[in-house]
Amino acid sequence: MSSTVATTDTAAPKRGNARRDRESLYDGTGGIDFVGRRKIWYCITLALLVISLLAMLLRGFNMGIDFEGGTKLTMPAGELVAEEVEETFVDATGVTPELTQIVGSGDSRMLEINSGHLSQEQIDAARQAIFDEYQPEDYNGEPSADAIGDSTVSESWGSTITNRMLLAMAVFLLAASLYVAVRLQRAMALAAMGALLVDGVIIMGIYALFGLEVTPAMIIGLLTVLTFSLYDTVIVFDKVKENTSGVLDSRRSTYGEEANLAINQTVMRSISTSVISALPIVALMVVAVWMLGVGTLKDLALIQLIGVIQGVISSLFLATPLLVSIVNRSTKYRDHNAEVEAYRSRGETDEVDEVDEAPVVEQKRQVATPLRAAEDSTATSSSTWRPDTR
Fold first, then answer.
1. Where is the composition biased (Polar residues) (predicted)?
2. Is 238 in the same domain as 270?
């Protein structure tokens, strides 16, 4: 019987603790030890950085036509087979295309052929050969050579676009650095920029690893999601700044504990913001990829979806733990952590002493109380009034 009761008593608190942990994520009282497990997050981040850098060095980037220059032919896919159309293209031009693919779905499916720079004669020969062989139909459902579109970007234009992309990235990083330097404390600025650089490297590593095409739309989306990541980090850091104000004047908690509480107080806001941001992006991907097959919208939606996910993960699991690591390098915060630990140790010792003395006091009360009760009972019975029956 006693063993059954003990099992029940130990199981109930676990269920209660689990329920309180879930509720604490909503009421902001703190439920997850983000900062205490920062070594785990650092190891995961380091592994992702190594994979990303190796992918960029070994595989390189699949640069779009706007950056490298070249020629693109597009036509309604219909019942076309990409490999067969590519063979016709090679026979007509003598050039092997870099990429032949079908994008979109349903009636909006488009076949794209990307190759190096072609002369106008080669373009005309390819269009005529493809039309004669496959009779692609225009939007009116009639076979037409005009259904085959072409666009050419020169190498010089591609070089100009590349230089402007690099300039835009440099300007963004400079502006972001100035903003966080003015808006946040020095340690917060360093942590925010470190997390931002990690975001950029990992996102670009994903593009290199999976061979996703780098286009101007992708660069615009990258700058957008990096801004979102920085915004989410600033929101968390604002709460950290509020919680840690005057932390050195008290021995109740350390800087890391207050920072961890700040993450828990803002985690549901970060997740909710990310989900709300992802919904229109998913809708854009459905419209762009599944219904229309529009390449520009697809590139923009894909990078934003990847960036929003990466941004919220880094702001919760990397930026604030990195901030705590930077702050704890300071002598005054290390000394304060030691003071808090020593204060807690003394407090635990005092509590143990009080617990040891408590049974003695309780035992004296248990012995004395029945005696007084008995005496009072005797006195009361001896002095009870009775009526005169004589």
1. 1-10
2. yes
Please indicate, yes or no, whether residues 105 and 161 belong to a single structural domain of this protein.
no
Contact (Cβ atoms closer than 8 angstroms) between residue 297 and residue 288: yes
Sheet with 70-76, strands from edge to edge, namely 99-103, 110-115, 70-76, 149-153
CA 231 – CA 111 distance, rounded (Å): 39
- Are the C-beta atoms of 52 and 205 separated by less than 8 Å? yes
Looking at residue 182, what is its pLDDT?
Answer: 83
Q: Are residues 191 and 309 in the same domain?
A: yes
- Give per-residue pLDDT as tens, 176-212: 888 887 888 889 989 999 999 999 999 999 998 888 8
Q: Do the strands 149-153 and 70-76 form a parallel or antiparallel pair, or are they unpaired?
A: antiparallel
| Secondary structure class of 69 (helix, strand, coil) | coil
Between CA 75 and CA 104 the distance in angstroms is 12
**C-alpha–C-alpha distance, residues 277 and 279, integer Å:** 6
- What are the C-alpha distances in Å from 389 to residues 4, 117, 136, 137, 386? 61, 133, 129, 128, 9
| Nearest partner of 118 among 129, 103, 102, judged by Cα | 129
Same domain, 116 and 256: no
Q: Rounded distance, CA 251 to CA 330, Å?
A: 17
Please give the span between the terminal C-alpha atoms of the chain, in angstroms, as a whole number: 60
Please answer whether residues 212 and 206 qualify as being in contact, where contact means their C-beta atoms are separated by less than 8 angstroms: yes
Report pLDDT digits (tens) over 116-127: 888 888 888 998
Tell me, yes or no, whether 145 and 276 share the same domain.
no
Query: Which residues are bridge partners to 137 per DSSP?
Result: 143
Q: Which two tokens stand for residue 339?
A: 């003071």
Contact 236, 262 (CB under 8 A): yes
The parent domain of residue 199 ranges over: 32-60+157-327
Q: How many domains does the chain have?
A: 2
Q: Is 185 in a helix, a strand, or coil?
A: coil
Same domain for 54 and 92? no
120 and 162 inside one domain = no
User: What is the model's pTM?
Assistant: 0.70
> What are the CA-CA distances from residue 272 to residues 126, 180, 222, 269, 312 (Å)?
51, 24, 21, 5, 10
